[in-house]
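re: that chain from earlier
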Amino acid sequence: MIRITVSSKSRKDLMEITSCLSQQNDFFIVSSGTDGFHALKSAKINKPDIIIIDYNLNDINGPDLAPIIKRNSPSTAIIVLCSEDECKNIGRVLEAGISGCLLKQNCLDNIASSVRSVFYGGLYFSEQFRKNAENCFSQTNTDTPEKKIQYSFNRTELCIINSIISGFTDNEIAKDLNMTCGSLRNSVYHVKRKTGLKNRTQISFYAMFSGMISQIKIQEQFVKKTPA
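^ sequence. v structure.
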């Protein structure tokens, strides 16, 4: 059962969203409210799997609230609902480590899919967000993706990046690679330094837009054919 908290400043939108989600047999609405305080309180007390919030709530905006939620409930993933104008602020969304962004005006069409995708460790961004994200990387990185991909990643780093893209937690990655969490954090730090990125969401997007995913797949094929 996927446990969900919803916060929307519009009571009408809140009712429509919770009604839509409640029709799914594998969803359970933990709580619903109209402000960021409610979302944060639910994160602290209920530890939901997913929190869905408006980009702009009555008391705080989503990108500012997201890191606070993650500090109180690290395993909770966050989906933000935005207007077309708000979705232009994709840089702030990626900086905050938010896992999903949907256009609010048609979110009911794919909100269930986004919840499942994010719950199982993926990302779910509408087409407009993906375009804005790609533009964001091309404008904010001093090196182009094609140039950055020339950096050399060792076998461990590539496995870590692949695990991050797959949505695994640090503990899960460390256990799978037979390393300590401290060593993992050091490796993740070096990955961030090489790519110029700051969190898992940014690393996942960068892997998509830079061609890193193809590099990972090639490396995986090589590792499978090469004795340890």
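The chain has a mean pLDDT of 79.
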